[in-house]
Predict the 3D structure of the following.
Amino acid sequence: MTKLFKSKIFYYFFMIIVGLDVFNSALGLNVKTDFAFNIFIKYFSLLICLAAFISFFIDLKINHGIFKTYIYLKSIIFPTFFLLYMAKEPILYGVHIFPAEKYLMFGFALVLGLVLLLLYNKYKIENQ
C-alpha cells in the first residue's frame, strides 16, 4: 500500500473519524422516516462513508478523490445545508421547531469538516 499522508497521526485520526461516521450512518438507517428523499440521503451518506473507509485499505489511484468527496460532501456540504434549512424556520416564520442541540451538532460537524479539509490539504501526498 502506498503512503497516503505525511503524518501517521493524521492518517489514524482521519480513519477513526471516517470509521465512526460509517458506524453512525449505519445506525441512522434504523430510524424510521416518511420521506423517500430522507431515505436516499441516508443510503447516499452511508455509501460515501463506506467508500472512504475502504479507501484506507485498498490501494487505488482515486483514493484522494474519494477522500475529497467525503470531506466536501459529507463533512462540509451536508452540515451547511442542514444548518441553513434549520435556520429558515426562525428567520421566515419566527418558529423554533428544532432543538438547540441540532444546531450545535451540525455546527460542530461543519467545524470538524473544515478542520479535516485544512489538515487533509496540509498532509496529503500527491502521486507523481
Remarks:
- Residues 8-123 form one domain.
- The mean pLDDT is 91.
- The longest helix spans residues 63-93.
- The chain has four helices and no strands.
